[in-house]
Amino acid sequence: MKVEASAPSNIALIKYMGKTAATGNVPTNASLSYTLPHLRSFVVIEEASGADQWQPLAGFLELRLSDKGRQKFLNHFARLKTHWGIQGSYSISSANNFPSDCGLASSASSFAALTLATWELARRKGLAQNETQESASRLSRLGSGSSCRSFFEPWALWKDEGAESVALETRLEHAVIIAGAEKKPVATSDAHQRVATSSLFKGRPERAEERLTQLVHSLKAGTWQESFEVCWAEFWDMHALFETSQPSFGYMNAQTLQALTHLRDIWSRTGDGPLVTMDAGANVHVLIRPEQTALADQWLKNFTIYKSWSAP
């Protein structure tokens, strides 16, 4: 038996950074994300002999998992097998169509794809009959917190143990400026633990929840500059936690700062521009209104990017 699945990445505009406990990936505040269907992970599961094993999936960007990363992936598969009562041993192949471990949320898409593929495997075996998209999202969260948002599009809200679709009419295009494709110096799972040592973490959940309310209101009202200001403040808040943790760490590099300065200058000069945000990495995400694509091609022409819209 062979099953295949894929899942998109997502970018949070209100961030998930900080957990209520050491296990379970339950966030300290709600997060709001936009789904990125052009950045995807792919998983193939096939029956095999011996122990469950992982290998890179051919035909995509080469994916190299550390021993820790491979074990985390297989541990989640084992968790799903137990939950659905799946018997037997399997070979799991996975890959992305974008770089991994550099702040593009490859963990979100890869664990969502693994959960979807295993769910399909269970269904073919006559199991998981009562599973829903929402309950599968909660299961995926146990492997990678932000993966629960990749089950919904285009907008997803995650609070407590699960995510859900959000009825926002705003439709956006996305691009990410590649400021660094190398592996992150501090894994996101470690960052979640370290930020609790920052003096700025006190009040962080309340700040995030307030920005969530402001962002949803501004998106519904169409007040684009207000949405930009909220997103800008939110990602800087998260990166300030990194820089003030004990010990401190950071992800930004010279290319990151160049891109951020350029994007802020666009707003200063024109009174318009993209929404700007960052994940736990060096790369810079921009979200634009569909009518801004021609402008965005000019704004981003000097950067290496992945984008959702067609080339001019």
Secondary-structure map with pairings?
Layout lengths: L1 E13 L16 E18 L4 E4 L10 H18 L4 E8 L9 H19 L8 H9 L13 E5 L2 E4 L7 E5 L10 H7 L9 H18 L2 H20 L10 H17 L4 E4 L5 E5 L4 H7 L5 E3 L5
Parallel strand pairs: 3-4
Antiparallel strand pairs: 1-2, 2-4, 2-5, 5-6, 7-9, 7-10, 8-9
Helix pairs in contact: 1-2, 2-3, 5-6
CATH topology of the largest domain: Ribosomal Protein S5, domain 2
Stretches with pLDDT under 50, minimum 5 residues: none
> What is the helix tally?
8
Give me the CATH architecture of the largest domain, please.
2-Layer Sandwich
Describe the structure.
This protein is an alpha+beta fold and 312 residues long. It folds into two domains: 2-165, Ribosomal Protein S5, domain 2; 173-307, GHMP kinase, C-terminal domain (Alpha-Beta Plaits, 2-Layer Sandwich). The protein is 37% helix and 22% strand. It is built from eight helices and ten strands. The strands form two sheets. Strands 1, 2, 3, 4, 5 and 6 form a six-stranded mixed sheet that branches. Strand 5 and strand 6 form a beta hairpin. The longest helix is centred in the C-terminal third of the chain and has 20 residues, at 224-243. The radius of gyration is 19 Å and the shape is globular. The mean pLDDT is 94.
Key phrases:
single chain, 312 residues, alpha+beta, Ribosomal Protein S5, domain 2, Alpha-Beta Plaits, 2 domains, 6-stranded mixed sheet, 4-stranded antiparallel sheet, 8 helices, 10 strands, globular
